[in-house]
Specification:
Blueprint: H1 12-35, H2 44-53, H3 60-69, H4 73-89, H5 93-117, E1 120-121, E2 125-126, H6 131-151, H7 155-179, H8 185-218, H9 233-249
Antiparallel strand pairs: 1-2
Length: 250
């Protein structure tokens, strides 16, 4: 007997695409990290993009500030809490675990990579990869996955929707970071690719762990916890058969 606490967070029709995405994104993160390791100045591409978007005025600067807030600790906590609350209201605990785990692993990966790469901006501020960009991209990917599954989107529409959400979120936060002078453009590309590399692994881990736990609990006796007895499973089964025999004999 097996069960599943809610549908899988990574639909079967998207697994191949997510694996391919991770295989393409991970090398980009590593290559960019190696190329820009220990640097403190922008290169040509960074300077060109920065010149095009840096120093934007109102109202776009206000948009950039609000977008940047979503990646700040306070904004990130509020955003994750809102998404998790929505998952719980929809009775999808597996999705709630996915959101917390995915956001944590994505931000944790960027935090670990920054001192390894050692790229800095505005003095000693570690900049590669952009944690803001990675976080918002991860949230967009996870939410779009859940929405696609909830709405029952087909293979083509669902795939396009998920990848479009990740692209738009990454581009929006990347633009905000460059416009505010917080990151080089290549930092944001590294952050975007970090999310693309981490999320498929996270989804696989959450689904696999949830399925194993479900199968394990499904095999336990249908008794309240206070009625379970200590000892190996075979001993407990023998005791129940003996109790049943005594009841029939009486």
């Amino acid at each position: 007997m097996t069960g599943r606490p809610g549908p899988a967070v990574l639909p079967s029709w998207l697994r191949v695409w997510f694996v391919l995405m991770a295989c393409l994104a991970a090398p980009v993160v590593l290559v960019l990290g190696a190329v820009y390791a220990d640097e403190s100045e922008p290169r040509e591409w960074d300077m060109r993009i920065s010149a095009a978007v840096d120093g934007v005025g109102p109202p776009w600067r206000h948009v950039a500030v609000v977008t940047d807030f979503l990646g700040e600790p306070a904004g990130a906590v509020l955003l994750v809490a809102a998404v998790v609350t929505g998952c719980l209201l929809l009775r999808h605990p597996r999705a709630a675990v996915f959101v917390v785990t995915g956001a944590g692993l994505t931000v944790g990966t960027t935090t670990l990579l920054k001192p390894v790469v050692g790229r800095t901006i505005h003095g000693d501020n570690l900049s590669y990869p952009s944690g803001h960009t990675a976080f918002l991209t991860a949230i967009a990917l996870m939410v779009s996955l859940l929405v696609a599954g909830r709405l029952g989107l087909g293979r083509a529409a669902g795939t396009a929707f998920v990848f479009a959400a990740g692209l738009v979120a990454g581009a929006a936060m990347g633009w905000a970071q460059v416009a505010l002078g917080s990151h080089y453009a290549t930092d944001t590309l590294g952050g975007w690719c970090t999310a693309l590399a981490v999320l498929p692994v996270t989804a696989w881990l959450v689904d696999r762990t949830a399925d194993r736990l479900t199968d394990r609990w499904a095999g336990l006796p249908a008794h309240p916890p206070d009625e379970w007895t200590a000892g190996p499973p075979c001993d407990r089964r023998a005791e129940r058969r003996a109790d049943a025999g005594r009841q029939q004999g009486s």
